[in-house]
Amino acid sequence: MQIFVGVVALLIIGVALLWVLVPALYGLPPVSTSRERIRRALELANPQAGETMYDLGCGHGRVLVMAAKEFGLNAVGIEAGPVQCAVSWMNALRNGVSSKVRIEAGDFYKSNLRGADIVFAYLTSDHGDRLQEKLKRELQAGVRVVTISFGLPGWDAATFDREQLIYLYKL
User: Fold this and answer.
1) pTM, rounded to two decimals
2) How many beta carbons lie within 10 A of that of residue 141, not counting itself?
C-alpha cells in the first residue's frame, strides 16, 4: 500500500511540475484571466459563426470552449504544456464542443497560423516583437488579432479597451 501511495504522490508531483514548468520555459503567464475578460476580447473581434480562431498558449482551454460554444467558432489551441493539452481537450469534451475544437501540442512560433480569421493571445509583453513578425508573415488581410495585457509594438490598435487592457488589431 505504501508503494502505491508513493507512486500516486510522485505522479501528482510530476503533473504539477509539468503544469508550471513547461509554460514557464516558454515565458508564458501561468495565470488565467476572467471569463468576462475573455468574452469581451472575443466580442471586440466581432466573430462570425464558422470562422476559425487560434488561441496561442491555450492553457486549460477556456477561451476555446467559449469561442466554440458562445460564438460558433472553430477553435484551434496551440499549447506547449502536455498537461494543459490534455486538460484543454477534456474541457472541450466536457462542454460538448470537441467537434469544433482542435488542440495542437507545440510551440506556437513553429505553428502555421495561415488558416486563422482571429488570433487570440494572452501572453506577456516579452512576446510582442517576435509575435508581431510571425503574424506579419503568416496572416492575410482581414484577420483580427486580439491581445490581452500586451500590445504589438508599432501596430495601431483598431480598438483598445483601457479598463480591461484588451487590444484589437485588424490586418
Assistant:
1) 0.85
2) 6
